[in-house]
Amino acid sequence: MKWGKRIGAAVVGMAAVLGVVAAPAQATTTAAPDISLANVKAHLSALQTIANQNGGNRASGRPGYPASVSYVAQKLRDAGYNVTLQTCSSCAGSSQNVIAEWPQGDASQVIMLGAHLDSVSAGPGINDNGSGSASILEVALTLARENPAMAKRVRFGWWADEESGLRGSKFYVNSLPQTERTKIKTYLNFDMIGSDNWGYFVYDDVASVKAVFDEYFRTIGIQTEGDTEGDGRSDHASFKSAGIPVGGLATGAGYTKSAAQQQKWGGTAGRAFDSCYHRACDTLSNIPDTPLEKNSDAIGYALWKLAVGTSTGPDFSLGLTPSSGTVQAGQSATVTVNTTTTSGAAQAVSLSASGLPAGATATFNPASVQSGGSSTLTIATSASTPNGTSTITVTGDGTSVDRTAQYTLTVGDVSVRTFTNGTDYALNDYATVNSPITSSATGTATSPVKVSITGTHTCSEDLRISLRAPDGSTYSVKPTGSLPCTDLGTRNYSVPVTNEAASGTWTLVVYDAYAQDTGTLDSWTITV
């Protein structure tokens, strides 16, 4: 698919909220080229061959994964990218991330695109996630062939061991100094974009990033939905947890397509979006051309819009002093918002804040300034504001561009690291219980985290228990067992976790896998 128009900076400006750096009004961005479906499919064919030659999969820690790394890395080196193979010590088999940077554009403003390169061990993973990996590879190669003038630096990442808990992307983000993290203005993630019973899902974490993809899909007459199935379950969660604005695309996994979605997109209602999700049948024959082509073109559209072009007009920077603070519920934090004109004439800047915790409000005095001026931000919490740490994004909406900065607000005593949920939950046959705990602890959770569970169930062997971390990663606490049956009572577990933030909502997930025995989850406690 070709775009026969040029994109003025007025449209580029809509991508500017929450860290997406927009091109100024005077800049012109060259229209994105077609992303070759044939080339994307050739990359998928290569990944299928790699799996066929290496035990049927490309899982991290298995021979098919380093072969996949070699294929991707060589293509990028041949195209002129600066390629780094980063060994992930927390990944299975010390697998490697592939990081590739195009050596043009402003290095202090990075647009990053990523996809996990590993499969599950059950199959070759051609949709999950050969589709995302192959598409961003072809987008990267197209960028090199076209070689347009760049306003921003573009970086790509192919992640190891996503299937075991986002390990590769977590390792990468955690290895970056804070100064390098702040250079990444947007991270775009692509995980499963060729499902056989596809939908068109756009990550809705940041409205302005979603708007870029939605704009493309509107030009080809496709309605989109926010992606709920993948929320927190793919590599964008690693970047979001670090305060980096994120976006991305997906076509669905194990969730079932509704009748309304069938009316919107076609396909089969009542069937999973990908019938081969995490199965051996996730092969080349599992990938239809239509979603693969449209999503690949959407990725190219977004990249050109966010990173291509030259910036020559008025601009400003935005900073916060201090950049973090701690209050008790009911108290307020005061922050100075500083703006500086960095090029061209001064411009009017309207100020707003997002990401506030429940029960908190933000006011600016004054609410707008000329770039070069400052404002006082007051963040007022209420008695009902929960303990915990929030990343608040302050946006300066300028006449030509938008700029953002982050403030970290901690409410309550974060020295406490043990938390309890004492709500009773019925444990019924073939039913799942989700019991949440909100942690206000700071820093990284100490692995293994300690979990204590108290309840009644005449056959605890029926229960499969897992722990879901704040970023959506899931860890096994207890598998189902075999006879004889024993009562649940109080049980203590040590659960190894990988680079998890201590703060946020931890959820105990209890599934009763068999019939006849029921019970109650009385309480559970976690120490992070």
Q: What is the 3D shape?
A: globular
Class per helix and strand makeup: alpha+beta
Average pLDDT number? 89
Distance between the amino and carboxyl termini: 50 Å
Strand order of the largest sheet: 3-4-6-5-7-10-8-9
Low-confidence stretches: 1-28
The number of helices is: 10
Fraction in beta strands: 25-35%
Radius of gyration: 24 Å
Can you count the beta strands?
28
Largest sheet: 8 strands, mixed
Secondary structure: helix percent: 10-25%
What descriptive keywords fit this protein?
528 residues, alpha+beta, 8-stranded mixed sheet, 5-stranded mixed sheet, globular
Describe the structure.
49% of the residues are buried. The chain has an eight-stranded mixed beta sheet, sandwiched between helices. A five-stranded mixed beta sheet has the order 12-19-18-14-16, with no helix packed on it. With 528 residues, the chain is an alpha+beta fold. It is globular, with a radius of gyration of 24 Å. Strand 5, helix 4 (126-146) and strand 6 form a beta-alpha-beta unit. It starts with 6 loop residues before the first strand and ends with a strand. The model is unreliable at 1-28 (pLDDT under 50). It is built from ten helices and 28 strands. It has helices at 9-12, 37-52, 64-79, 126-146, 167-175, 178-181, 207-219, 236-240, 259-265, 289-307, and strands spanning 7-8, 28-29, 82-87, 96-102, 106-116, 152-159, 184-190, 201-202, 225-226, 246-250, 315-321, 324-327, 332-343, 348-354, 361-365, 368-370, 374-380, 388-398, 402-411, 418-421, 425-427, 432-439, 449-457, 463-468, 474-478, 489-495, 504-512, 519-527.
